Amino acid sequence: MSTPRRRRTQPRRNDGQRPVDLWRPVPTLPDLEPIVPADDATALLRSLGPPPLDRHSLAGEHYLATVVERAAALATGLAGAAQVLAETDDDADGRDDAGNGGAS
Questions:
Q1: Contact partners, residue 80, CB within 8 Å, separation at least 6
Q2: Structural domain for 78, as ranges
């Protein structure tokens, strides 16, 4: 048996690249824009058509839609907690989702 040949490693050249300064000042971020929740979170998913899962396509579509709706609900909750959620017309008149006058 012969011993396997080892590949000779050649030192890497820098090719004139300068090292990146990780602690450099960064530009300021733009002002936050209010986040508006999607009316239909699954619209993009449905626009792609049924998932290619053969005979499980209907169930797969249902589960994918459920995941997208849950992700949208979590994102809306996070935006609300961060106070960057856009006000809707219902919020402006002091009514809750059920049409009541809000908390008493």
A1: none
A2: 52-92
Length of the chain: 104
**Residue 30 domain-assigned?**
no
Q: Which residue has the tokens 């856009």?
A: 86
In a domain, 1, yes or no: no
- For residue 21, the one-letter residue type is D
Looking at the structure of the chain, the number of domains it has is 1
Dihedral (CA of 48, 52, 53, 55) sign: positive
Q: Is the pLDDT of residue 99 over 80?
A: no
Task: Name the H helices within 1-104.
Answer: 43-47, 57-81, 89-92
The pTM for the full model equals: 0.59
pLDDT digits (tens, 9 = 90+) for 51-94: 999 899 899 999 999 999 999 999 999 999 999 999 877 766 55
